[in-house]
Amino acid sequence: xxxxxxxxxxxxxxxxxxxxxxxxxxxxxxxxxxxxxxxxxxxxxxxxxxxxxxxxxxxxxxxxxxxxxxxxxxxxxxxxxxxxxxxxxxxxxxxxxxxxxxxxxxxxxxxxxxxxxxxxxxxxxxxxxxxxxxxxxxxxxxxxxxxxxxxxxx
Length: 154
Known about the structure:
With 154 residues, the chain is an alpha+beta fold. It has two domains: 5-116, Alpha-Beta Plaits, CATH 3.30.70; 118-154.
């Protein structure tokens, strides 16, 4: 049986994406892509979050599930992702973007353009997952504030 594929996403400051590409070459990651991104947050929000620049490099790597931990650690070490403001890396199942069979066929180059799935649904799934995670974070923060306020009243 074929090992599941996961997609690693890595968002770093502009210019640092080249380090991701070099790491991919060193680690024999056959499929990766580097994109240029631009954030939409205003300067006040960026300042509040401690983020300097809106210009970002966005890398996507397709790797076997068994290598996720190893590669995430190497990305963290190489790009110092454990330090605030240096970037973020995350992984999702490739099947979250398209059906698993189709995903493997895409990577193998076995599909013609007309056979390509509509990845809008994959993008929507990612957006929903991000919003859900953000809501969980907001809820936890609200609970902490309420707990702290309740303790202050006593």
